[in-house]
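pls ignore typos typing on phone
beta-D-ribopyranose + seq
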Amino acid sequence: QKKQLVIVVKGLDNPFFEAINQGCQKWNSENASSEYECFYTGPASTSDEAGEAQIVQDMLGKPSTVAIAISPSNAKLIAQTIKTAAPTIPVMTLDADLAKEDAALRKTYLGTDNYLMGKRIGDYMKEALPKGGKVCSIQGNPGADNILRRAQGWRDSLSGQEGLTELKGEGGWTEVAGCPVFTNDDGAKGVQAMTDILAANPDLVGFGIMGGWPLFGAPQPYRDLFKPLAEKIAANEFVIGAADTIGEEVAIAKEGLVTALVGQRPFEMGYKAPTVMIDLIGGKPVEDPVFTGLDECTKDTADTCIQK
Amino acid sequence: MAISTLDQTIGQKQQSWLSGVLGSQTFWVFIAVVAACIFLSFATDAFATSKNLYNITRNVTFVAIIALGMTLVIITGGIDLSVGSVLCLCSMVLGVTMHAGYGIEVGIAASIATALIIGAFNGVLIAYLGFPPFVVTLGMLSVARSLAMVASNNTVVFQFGPDHDLLLSLGGGAWFFGIANPVLYMIVLALITGFVLRWTRFGRYVYAIGGNEHAATLTGVPVKPIKVAVYMISALSAGIAGIIQTGWLGAITTNLGAGLELQVIAAAVIGGANLAGGIGTATGALIGAALIEIIRNSLGLLGINAFWQGTFIGSAIILAVLFERIRNFRQSE
Amino acid sequence: MAISTLDQTIGQKQQSWLSGVLGSQTFWVFIAVVAACIFLSFATDAFATSKNLYNITRNVTFVAIIALGMTLVIITGGIDLSVGSVLCLCSMVLGVTMHAGYGIEVGIAASIATALIIGAFNGVLIAYLGFPPFVVTLGMLSVARSLAMVASNNTVVFQFGPDHDLLLSLGGGAWFFGIANPVLYMIVLALITGFVLRWTRFGRYVYAIGGNEHAATLTGVPVKPIKVAVYMISALSAGIAGIIQTGWLGAITTNLGAGLELQVIAAAVIGGANLAGGIGTATGALIGAALIEIIRNSLGLLGINAFWQGTFIGSAIILAVLFERIRNFRQSE
Amino acid sequence: MAVLELSNISKHFGAIQAVNDVSLSIEPGEVVGLMGDNGAGKSTLVKMIAGNFRPSEGTMKMDGAELILHKPVEARRHGIEIVHQDLALCNNLTAAANVFLGRELRRGFGPFAVLDYATMYRRAGELFKELKSETRPRDLVKKMSGGQRQAVAIARTRLSNAKIVLMDEPTAAISVRQVAEVLSLIHRLRDQGIAVVLISHRMPDVFSVADRVIVLRRGRKVADKKIASSSPEEVTGLITGAIEQV
Amino acid sequence: MAVLELSNISKHFGAIQAVNDVSLSIEPGEVVGLMGDNGAGKSTLVKMIAGNFRPSEGTMKMDGAELILHKPVEARRHGIEIVHQDLALCNNLTAAANVFLGRELRRGFGPFAVLDYATMYRRAGELFKELKSETRPRDLVKKMSGGQRQAVAIARTRLSNAKIVLMDEPTAAISVRQVAEVLSLIHRLRDQGIAVVLISHRMPDVFSVADRVIVLRRGRKVADKKIASSSPEEVTGLITGAIEQV
Ligand SMILES: Nc1ncnc2c1ncn2[C@@H]1O[C@H](COP(=O)(O)OP(=O)(O)OP(=O)(O)O)[C@@H](O)[C@H]1O
Ligand SMILES: Nc1ncnc2c1ncn2[C@@H]1O[C@H](COP(=O)(O)OP(=O)(O)OP(=O)(O)O)[C@@H](O)[C@H]1O
Ligand SMILES: O[C@@H]1[C@@H](O)[C@H](O)OC[C@H]1O
Ligand SMILES: [Mg+2]
Ligand SMILES: [Mg+2]
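k done
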């Protein structure tokens, strides 16, 4: 049996992670003769945070596991899991990191610079609508570190200040009641909430969507919701900055129904992770963090924005 | 006793039509729905807009359609926990088939066939082998979602081949007086279900099985085939909801319909279906689903923190049954 | 008939002890668990390691502890769908209290009080007002999770004030021969539950209520208080599991315990509890939980595609009941 | 010629031999009392005649032709009606719906046939009148008294022109007045040439209404006698086993 | 002195007047037949005496002292035992567990008292022997025949030294042989000075065993006569209402 480089993701029900899986499988097919293999797993649902911890433990307990890369849906909980398991093999994070104070528990983080990503989402919104207004952010699991960092970057960009936990008019931006919305990565739920918030706040000027769920998980209702606003979006009177470039997202950008997308490279994460883990096993120096790039898409750049 | 009295007695109905209606949970939940709508129209500008009503009615449909099938199951005294997963699997089958280049008819046929096979599997275990419905459909809840992951390789499916646009307009369009298509399907399905329950032998048997399965067997009601049919209808309703929802969402992920079973059961129960069997209506299923959606929508519109949503919906579930309890209580003690 | 024959007959037991055991679902599921363990020990190096066994036994505990409470509820013929949410709410209450600077005793007391209040609420509606258990606890499922969101403002709680480390070692430590602490709690709770069911009047009444509630009432069993107690115990078991799980996980979000109710019911049912009431044991709850965890764990260790896991677990749920069905089937036709 | 003839009928449930090699024949217009201890196999025997169970062995003949029944409807088609021991009523349905359960009247054709509520209410009302029972066809059975429930169950047997009516303890737990009604109904059936099998533990009922009494013990027929040539004491002896066989 | 005396007892359920202004008294060792149509209020009346329901109006006295019962246990403590119409058995429990249901024997003290299985099995076995019933204390009631079930229900009344035993249709749907057993049990109870109230629709049973018959109609007492000075015909008339009152 081969030595396993294990990737544990937040949940199998999010297609973002399938792209990671495909990267992982590509590595396997290119390294068929290697003594290592990439093994991808995770709980069935992103909301099953304890389930992810159990899988991490199972994998740490397996003798064939020689390194592990985790995307924690609840950073604190996975930190605690690693702490108690006290693994002797290298542990890294992927896509989502542990909280800053727990950084010592993992060797490195491979993935998006989430703070920067959020900041870029905010930058686009601010650039389009400098005077600001009422906005709402759409988030995933309340405990997901990557999403929280994006939200922080987004707020910092809009407010021009650092570390605010809620926008109350700073830089002209205000988060309305009922926000942020935590969707647990469920697209339909996200659009439904956005619909209601828009109805309740006719003077809303924008959404900051910290994960692409509503766009890739429920593209049609998303379109239905924002088609009437297409002109305002084109005129920068309504601004939407969204994460990811999965599924229909780029098409939606091309239709002009989102001001800007800031996408990640999950395939690259999955493809690179085994190499990074092998380096860690071999004791080679590895940077911390290892950032994968961002792909930024607007209506005009939609055809070319994705790095192949 | 004089013959005339006997004649009179036999000709009488115990309850007038009105007292029957006033005594029904469905009626009072309906009143609650109407009252909520009136209140919301005044309390918030956003409620009575055509856009919001369009959204509300459309959001209701998915739960309502499955609640129609679930109501049949509940009337026979059963339960079907697998509907959320079956919806997901049927959507995936549709999506994967169409993505592979087949037309929408093939996709829908494959999807419906999947639903019927699953329903038949549940039904046969329950009716012929005597498995408890809760256990069988709980197992199927796990199995069907897992098969959906396998079928799609867990990717998001959002390109539906040559008939892509047709599928999307089927689920997302509004072909008739600006009413969302799903709403039309829901109304048609509710009319059919209502008709079947009230006017056909099959419907009568569904009630009889729930009332006293043993008696139904003894009097020659084909209990087992009907139970199988009922679980097939339930799975079918989930499949149909899945097809429509796919057309509406324009993308399928494997978390589609997660946890939906409890919402659907809640809708049926709020609408007056009795989990002990023998009682339930198509109208009730719709009204129950409507109440849940209106609560959800109104909390958003009223600016009430989304965290409180569950408290309101949970309380509604309990309160809906309270009325029925008070009535029973009065009668007995 | 001669007196000696009558004496003999009365002295007899219908079934020998052995045939009783061989006829029980719990026994066969136990055999399945043992067989799976033996198979896995040979099939994979990873299974029979002390580390893995430590993990498995600890993972079992949360479902198993709640399944103990659930088994009592199921024996009385009820069901409790709210346990997953109650676990979440109790964890939150513990977390929020300790985070606010109170000691662990205060946190645990607050948490347990919360559980008991919720259980009493469920129980009173069910026992005294005659609400269907499914409906009440379905409503509570919604309400309790929503309250957890309100209590925590939907944030992650991971700092537990002055007694932080104590809480973590309570749930995450292994104070006794390297056995994970939660496992010890589970064993103690299972012994207590088993003792209560078999040797106390309370336990006898729990079975009597599930066997024939009306008969129990007529013979003077305090049916209503006992039903309330049973729902309180169920909520309590969820609360205890929540406290231990918090200590183990070290962080709480409002997703904790989502969907757990179905897993717990599955464990109880696999272990032989009958949803129709009257049948169930503490051992069964443990064995059922163990089977589910072993399947989950082994699929990962055997490198089986994660997509298929649900299929295996779902099939296990159905198969566990199959044995019991076959036996009944043989006897009747 | 016998309206119903059973030859060597047996029925076992797993290891339990509920009915064992029973033969009997019943003439038109004859009232036969079927007696026996609890568990003697009386209900099982009549359920086979009513198409609820299939015999494990033996044959049944009706009007000389072999009778093979797969389901209750088939028995009814042959003119066999039964009042079940537990009445077999659905509490959530109306009296009329219960009367017509399993043979609902419909209007329209083929797939468009719908339940004919009006006719069913009317017919059920007529039947209740015939039975002199104050039972309202539109009322739910749930709210009915024991006597009314009994009337509903008995009304079923009057739906078609039955040749033989099987009554499984129709008088257990009903009051003196209603017992008299049931017995007089049996007389009326007999007068119309309908054969009746009456299962009862009440000696006086059987002796007042039956022409013949058949006794089962542990699944076997141990007696088949004209009432005129028997006595309650003898039948009691046969039931308990004090008298072995006659 | 009367062992039990009811004065103007009434019970209504909502609008339903189940028992209406009933007074009666019972002497030690007396067997009283309680008859009436279905729904006449017989079960409701004995359930009040057994502590299952509380009277809406009226008073009960036992041995001259006022009797107020909140629950069945209290009735038992006063020496009142009842065999319920539906036997009130739990199918999932053993015969012994059913016999002792609600008054389990325990060993040990206070919170450490545990069920005393051994003694309960032994005592139940003794009771079954006394009743001449082939019933095994360790068997589940689920698998028992009608007669065995009846034995279990009756055995309960023998647990303590009852002063009065209420039997609600103990002979409905049981066989001739078992009816005889029950009637002889009633004789034995009477001989020990225990008062018995027997509810039955079977005229012969009541006339063979009772000293006195009380007839209820629509909740009201319409007759209370010595058996010797009445006749089945008169009682029938009273039950049906052909005779208004005596
Ligand atoms: N469906 C069944 N499965 C298994 N055993 C059965 C079934 N039906 C009846 N029996 C058994 O067959 C035997 C005969 O039962 P049956 O109901 O015919 O008796 P019976 O003479 O009608 O008694 P009773 O006077 O109590 O109604 C009994 O031992 C009974 O337990
Ligand atoms: N718990 C109850 N709630 C409401 N009504 C009741 C209740 N118990 C009995 N009744 C009603 O009270 C009346 C008297 O019933 P009861 O059971 O005492 O009659 P009974 O004389 O025992 O009849 P039977 O011979 O059929 O056993 C009936 O109308 C019955 O429906
Ligand atoms: O990186 C993200 C992942 O962690 C989230 O939960 O789903 C989509 C991505 O935005
Ligand atoms: Mg019978
Ligand atoms: Mg009664």
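Chain C touches chain D at residues 330-333 (CB under 8 Å). Residues A 10, 14, 16, 71, 95-96, 140, 144, 146, 185, 211-212, 243-244, 264 surround beta-D-ribopyranose (ligand 3) (CB under 6 Å). more later
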